[in-house]
Hints:
Layout: H1 3-14, H2 22-26, H3 36-60, H4 65-87, H5 98-103, H6 106-125
Helix pairs in contact: 3-4, 3-6
Main location: endoplasmic reticulum
Family: Belongs to the EMC6 family.
Keywords: Endoplasmic reticulum, Membrane, Transmembrane, Transmembrane helix
Amino acid sequence: MTSSSRRREELHAGNGGLKQSSWSRAVSCKAVWDEKDEFLDVVYWFRQIIAVVLGVIWGVAPLKGFLGIAIFCVINAGVLYVYFSSFQQVDEEEYGGTWELTKEGFMTSFALFLVVWIIFFTALHYD
Length: 127
């Protein structure tokens, strides 16, 4: 019996057989993900939240240029890597490897970040 199936059985017995929502598992350490797509959805939406928050911060603090983009990329990829490797402790190979999890939803979050950053920067700092 693998460790993930053992964890799944323990969780199922521990909560009386009730299924947890995706978001309650997202904030629970070492949660068991029955379906691959649920975890990938959580990674995708978590990345979008990070993009909005960092876009607002970058727009309010008048950060400009390549430095802002580079810092966003490092923070976005780093936070998600720590989330799925240390907090959730998922087996990356079940999801196609570390690179697949790291790039899940990255381009859409990058676009969202740019839009939010530009809107806030223009609204607050443009004369």
